[in-house]
Amino acid sequence: MKYGEKLESYDLKRFNSNLIDPIKLIFDKSVYRSSWEEIVNNEIFRQRDKSNNNDIGYFHQNIFSYFEGCEVPQAGWDVIYKNSNGIRMPDGDTVHTLYVEMKNKHNTMNSASSAKTYIKMQGQILEDDDCACLLVEAIAKKSQNIKWTTKVDGKNVQHRLIRRVSMDQFYAILTGEEDAFYNMCMELPRVINAVVNEEEGVSVPHDTVIQELRKVASLYGDKSADLAMAMAVYMLGFNTYMGFENGIETKLGDGNDSMLKRIYTYAKAVEKII
Predict the structure, then answer these.
(1) Does residue 267 contact residue 227 with C-beta atoms inside 8 Å?
(2) Which end of the chain has less neighbouring CB within 10 Å, N or C?
(3) Are residues 39 and 71 in the same domain?
(4) H or E, element range at 164
(5) HEC-encoded secondary structure of 183-213
């Protein structure tokens, strides 16, 4: 359902809702020798993909609400796991509760975020000495369940009950089955296909961005097709900038020669810089 929401068609307004970087689009098109259609479609895919990455995080977290002993709270921790029989830790400790922070990839936290998370875990262990805190990574560098070593205030810190755990090892802790994560992955394609193929299925989007950009480009009729499209792209982010201030709503023609000269001069200047 969440993927389906991203498949809503893109028009120019939605395409530019978070402000496009026109300079990057121009560089990408020129350096990669791409067409405008390819560049626009790639940017639409990037925007959809960025949102989908958040939804994958939702999947990785909320699946644990179906695991015995697990809770997915609204705030505080991503997952809390309780086991009255005890949870054996690699260094020999036995605890009865795990507090979990979850990340999609191993490299998504900067130093400030890592320090903040570690301090949060330290505080939890001080409050409850019958628990451990885990940083669980869906895409870790390797399968692991190790003490998490990071920096707080410039000093290396670690604690046997604050651990860095790959997703497969976390599944094994919760289920007692070493290959539980593998088994889930083997089922995933079948389940996704079954859901996608249900009654309504997933609609194919009809994006209109490139057609709308061409309409904007048509306002710059005396320029080459490529420069006219470049101007249409520039207007997405620069329509209030000096030299662009007349905006895409102004129809070029009589009385606008001076603006066209400024556009041409600007384009030549950019060409020299590159």
Answers:
(1) yes
(2) N
(3) no
(4) strand 162-166
(5) HHHHHHHHHHHHHHCCCCCCCCCCCCHHHHH
> Has residue 191 been placed in a domain?
no
Residue type at position 110: N
| CA distances for 153 relative to 13, 111, 156, 167, angstroms | 44, 10, 9, 28
Please give the tally of structural domains in the chain.
2
Residue where a domain terminates, one of 161, 176, 191 = 176
Q: How far is CA 155 from CA 101, 124, 135, 158, 264, in A?
A: 22, 20, 19, 10, 56
Identify the domain containing residue 260 by its residue range: 2-55+205-273
Radius of gyration of the chain (CA): 26
Its pTM stands at 0.75
Q: Which of 25, 30, 63, 59 is nearest to 41 (CA)?
A: 25
> Looking at residue 245, what is its pLDDT?
60
What does the pLDDT look like over 90-149, one tens digit per residue?
Answer: 989 999 999 999 998 867 788 889 999 999 999 999 999 899 999 999 999 999 999 999
pLDDT of residue 167: 96
